[in-house]
Amino acid sequence: MPVGFLALVTASWHWLQSQLPPVWLTMLKIFASMYLGVYTLSFSLTRASATNGVDGKGMASKYAAGVWLASKKNNISKHYAEIFILKYSACWIGSVGVVLALEMFEWWGPWGYMVYCVGCAAPALLWPLLYPLKGDRALPMSQWYILKANLWIAAFSFIGNYWYTHYFYGILKANYTFEAHRLNDVPIALYFMTHAYFMFYHVLSNCLLRYVRSAYAPDAQRFVFQCAVVAAAAYSTAFMESLTICGFPYYKFEDVDMAYTLGSAFYGIYFLVSFPMFLRVDEDDTKPLMPHSQVFWESMGGGMLVLCLLDFVRLGLGADFVMKAGGH
Predict the structure, then answer these.
(1) H helix intervals, the chain
(2) Can you tell me the distance from the alpha carbon of 251 to that of 249, in angstroms, rounded to the nearest whole number?
(3) Left (φ > 0), alpha (ψ -120 to 50) or beta: where does 53 sit?
């Protein structure tokens, strides 16, 4: 049986090599190695013990049940905010699919891009202000998690567009070729679109990391596993965005293969820092809620750390970094 299985795997691999472009084989190796590593590390974990013999879902159990969303009982504002962000994200993601399928961007022009991208980002803030979320109706606005999430993501995404985009211009030879209003040679519309994307990504990362932390005992093995999960999620998120955006013809790379492999790792640096830092916002219900000032400065601090890491990579590659006032 093992010999037959090995022969099947070998034959399948040779077939894939004959059918897929080299870059896809490279990505397959990367993802297989990455997730095999995460899976292997999972065997070192110890299940967390249930509190008073009851898991997180109220069922009798020796072990705690992993939870995905913030506690509805102890962290109601964050609980309903995360649900709202997931539902709202489904709407704008669906609209992106329609836009790409119908190629609506071909007739937009600068103001068309602006209206659409602002329209995707604005509901994350305006809807909860106009129609307070279920978990916020009895709370003062200073305690609304949704406002803190918007603040954290707004600061981080602004830094990402204003600064980090130029590393893509200089190192990966990326280029936005559509006509647009620009700030520091980055289309202003994308500052808003990034807000929508990052709200979605970071709520998903909250759910993933919360599950790991709630399901497994806090020890060195869990810390290592969590680092591996963050790295895998960061690279996967970056790659999936690169893959999906390939349907948009006005964001180009000089070397598409390098954009998928090296570019995903480069972009993933953002999330190596931001995923665990964003989770910190009002996560520990045994501590006072995080004030808005701390939310802002933690986002700015995370942004500076990402900038340093990007520049360390640039130095390692021996590449120059130039920000041109008149455009790259």
Answers:
(1) 2-19, 22-42, 76-102, 109-121, 123-130, 145-159, 165-171, 188-215, 220-244, 256-279, 292-317
(2) 6
(3) left
CA distance 154 to 147: 10
HEC string for 53-122: CECCCCCECCECCCCCCCCCCCCHHHHHHHHHHHHHHHHHHHHHHHHHHHCHHHHCHHHHHHHHHHHHHC
252 three-state secondary structure: strand
Q: What is the mean pLDDT of the chain?
A: 89
Residue type, 257: D
Question: CA 181, CA 156: separation in Å to the nearest integer?
Answer: 21
The pLDDT score that the predictor gives to residue 36 is 95
pLDDT confidence of residue 60 = 45
**Token representation of residue 12:** 């399948």
231/209 Cα distance (integer angstroms): 12
Paired tokens of 88: 């709202």
Token output for 305 = 């750390």
Indicate whether 91 pLDDT > 70.
yes
Label residue 251 by pLDDT band (50, 70, 90).
confident
Q: Residues 241-252: what's their mean pLDDT?
A: 82
Tell which residue, 76, 56, 58, has the closest CA to residue 66: 56
